[in-house]
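Quick question: what would this complex look like in 3D?
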Amino acid sequence: MDLGVGIGWRPEIAGFVGALPGLRFTEVIAESVHPAHPAPELLELRERGAAVVPHGVKLSLGGAEPVAADRVAHLAACAEALGSPLVSEHVAFVRAGGIEAGHLLPVPRTRAALDALTANIRRTRAELPVPLAVEPIATLFDWPDAEYTEGDFLTELLERTDALLLLDVANVYANARNRGEDPVRLLDRLPLERVAYCHVAGGVEQGGRYHDTHTAAVPRDVLDLIAELCARHRPPGFLLERDGHYPPIGEMRAELDAIAAASGMAPVT
Amino acid sequence: MSAGGAGGAGGAGGAGSDGGFDAGLAAAQEALVRAMASGGPVPAGFDAAAVRVAAHGVLLKRAGEVARAWPALAASYGTAWNAEFAAWAAERPTQGSFRDGWDFARAHWDGLAGEAARELASAEIVWAYDGASAPRPRRAAARRVPGGVAVRFRGRVRIIGGPSRRRRVPPDGVPRGASGGYGLDQ
């Protein structure tokens, strides 16, 4: 599958996204989709032949508790309604003991967490009509007592579950920067041939920490990491995530063009 | 391995890759969620400062989401919105931005005026909300609002003297368009 450069569909920028002449790939937050009547702008993109990927944020694949059947069913219904080639979710948990965290939280890199993730991904895949890609998250902190490196943890998870990888280049950058590590080292330890597509986003530095907010321009370092990744193995697509502080159209276009240039893919603007 | 730590191998539930429930992992995750969302202590072994920073980031993100679902409410607080909402929400885990905004508005009912009061009244007549479970659509209702009376009948809200407005029942309890505008799309 060749997806090219894409951008996350959000109601606030539906006009901009729909008017991109070369766009063949977008993503929509699954929890915002009404499968019985999806947004007409999304259906229009689908009609044009663009791949529309439902991106779940509340399934809690990394939770000790089994994934909720109705949430899995919703993801499957989104894929059916949008004719999606795949769906994606996170290597994270978002609730425990009946309490919502309100955010994606990291899982411990332990055998126990790997087992829970494996079971939940298998449960989810069993109900989905299309493949599932899972995305490692950006986090400002890690659990103590890790039994695996991040690379080994993710590699084993993908081997166990046969899931695809949604690699967020900005998350790799953010985590490495906040841990004082080299982001390229993680790229070298991941099974890049399993990458279904990549996320790209910008964030802000605050109090000595880099926050992956999706509300700022993509930093040069992240664009450079795209080039590093493509030099190793070029993934099928790169998708820009923007979730607020939407800039003027010219700046959004420039962001997409910069991603195309860094990845060697065709511009979509 | 630290107590209450990573829910590591051999957790109390003894889960295997067959998907059995691991009570140790569940308890460790719950402790972290409580630290993040309801003011609980940061579990042993974590970088407490980093967890607190992350928790504050979540509160600001929630404030932004509530502001999109309840634009008049947030606007009525001006630049103080993020801080006001974050202070109120710090020990209240999210119930989704629609309910969070509603709970905040009810808790600050006395101070609401103009558009913010109208926004709350519009929600109150469209949905039956007991403050504990998901709002359900009402069949018909009326509420006094600043400048008149809001009436709902056959799915339409009319503020007497104001524009006709209507809300559609959403999949996740958040009105359509709630992330992009007033949430009372015509």
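Answer marked as accepted. The first helix of chain B runs from residue 23 to 37.
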